[in-house]
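Title: Prediction job returns without error message
Component: structure pipeline
Severity: low
Priority: P3
Assignee: unassigned

Description:
Job completed but the reporter wants confirmation the result is attached to the right record. Sequence as submitted:
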Amino acid sequence: MLILADRLEAGFPYPLGATWDGMGVNFAVFSSYAGSIDLCVFDAGGRREVARMRLRECTNEVWHGYLAGAQPGLIYGFRAHGPYDPPNGLRFNGNKLLLDPYARQIAGDLRWTDALFGYRVNTSRADLSFDRRDSAAAMPKAVVVNDSFNWGDDRPPRVPWSETVIYEAHVKGLTRRRGDIAAEERGSFAALGNRGVTDDLRRLGVTAIELLPVHYFIHDRHLLERNLRNYWGYNTLGFFAPAPAYLSSGSINEMKAAVRRLHQAGIEVILDVVFNHTAEGNELGPTLSFRGLDNSVYYRLVDGDQRHYVNDTGTGNTINAAHPNVLHLIMDSLRYWVTDYHIDGFRFDLGVVLGREAHGFDPGAGFFDAIQQDPILSRVKLISEPWDIGPGGYQLGNHPAGFAEWNDRYRDGLRRFWRGDTGQRPDFAARLAGSGDIFDRMARRPWASVNYATSHDGFTLADLVSYAERHNEANGEENQDGNGENFSANWGVEGPTEDTAILATRGKLQRAMLTTLFASLGTPMLLAGDEFGCTQNGNNNAYCQDNETSWLDWDLAAAPDGKALAAFVARLIALRKSYSILRCRNYLYGKEEVAPGIFDIAWFDERGAALTSEAWNNGEERCLIVRRAARIDGRDNHVITMLLNPTPDDRTFHLPEPALPTRLLIDSADPARPEMAIEGSDIPVAGRSAMLVLAELPAAG
């Protein structure tokens, strides 16, 4: 039986959300323009509203009240009353139950119905006339939580950026098809923290797992109508709550336990977060939370036509991160995940949105300033997706110091170089060297460039060498969605084949790209499943494929080819960890002579001749040698030379002078080939392959 006080006490305006103090719960919610706000309490099943109480206190635009006797587990929502005037950006409708923006746990799924909309939905047109239907029955509700958790001796791994290797994964997709995990746990945080999973990650050698969105999100109505789901989760509604679908136990502590186990394995946890838009969509979207509480504050509206939303995200709305109260929410959310879940970093989806001020993108925007001065957030890993679709939306390299950025120029350059496109050597050389032409300013380091061959958004590595075109028919959008230019090739047959020559070419190219990725300056990111050849059957936009298209096929990992590729990737990562010149903390420009005739970085053709301006500009020449050398702390005195042959023909490469005793480290054409001494300066390099060779620097002086 639910027992509550019949009236709210005054309470406090901070902290926002619902806070249990052992005696009751304080509720606080921001709204600049509401006339009044009600707290609505529901029964244990979240189906019946059992109490409605007005928040009678408002301090600094925060409505608040204290409910004596309330306990964790209490289910609640808000109703905001005020003017309904869409042309002027106001969309209050007290008939709509609103999710607390600070809800730390969320019960129930959204059930799509026209009652969720603040306006009367008309089958012929939407005139935004006021809708009086109650939406509570269809709404998810907030749950009061007790945030206590026994973290034991948990400590953040704090892996230096220069030693970081990122593994991008989906909580569900990573484990949904793993037979070594209990069926009821597969696809959940419990599975993510499973010993078998953490052991696999540790054996591979990755240092951080970057999770696609785990914040509470909803499935788009148009997808459900096509029997699809928003698998990726870039449709956030709750920025403080884990998605219940990933909690097999129903407890938020399940996620905390997974983080603790990953930390025990030395693996950091980075969350992909979506603060650029919400699940409420455009002006015809539902009223679920932010729109009903303070539409004109939370969202950027079109000047002079505030019925409509600025759409720099392509999702219908754009969060107004420049507003102090919205920025407050973003910062509170980030700090909460670090302090209460021990999260080690964040990747900001469409991060340019967060840096938009009235005049456009600004690296000195309030969001960046707030992050940089914050004693908690300034210490974690921060990664931006450096674009949106708004004016001036491509801002690669223009984020402030302290941020790393997804480098799509690296991705495209890697793909084009190994596809054998003409004229790629000059640009790709810059990518191999950490993209200093883009990032070397404000004392930024090479780690600022997050290098990748593939990510969740696009082909897998296996598909990149198996398909020339996208095959997204299953998405129900007539194969018009997803990127039309992937710089991919099928090497003779579109999709699966039994042709051994084609399969051999595909395998060589995968290993060549992986070798290049882990030997490049910058922070490498590996897409989960690429280490054992996962495929999405040519779908390069599998955002709505919550099925075996997206779930990793662990049978491939157990097959001989999958085992061999995973062992090759683990060997590459181990080499990167062993030789600091492969993960150098500083940019190299070929100006420092570290030994007679040997500079920190130098570029040659396959004959061992230094590249001249004329040679760089010869678009038909494709082969490349890059030699890097350093003396580091008197211990790491190595020369590592990369030999890159993207042509179809086997070539003999001549090592550049001066001649040094050399060892083979790895050969992508022959992944089982062990390390061995190399006789002489001429090295056969197979077509479409890469090699790394090692020499010791002569003694100084």
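Comment from assignee: result matches the submitted record. The chain has 16 helices and 35 strands.
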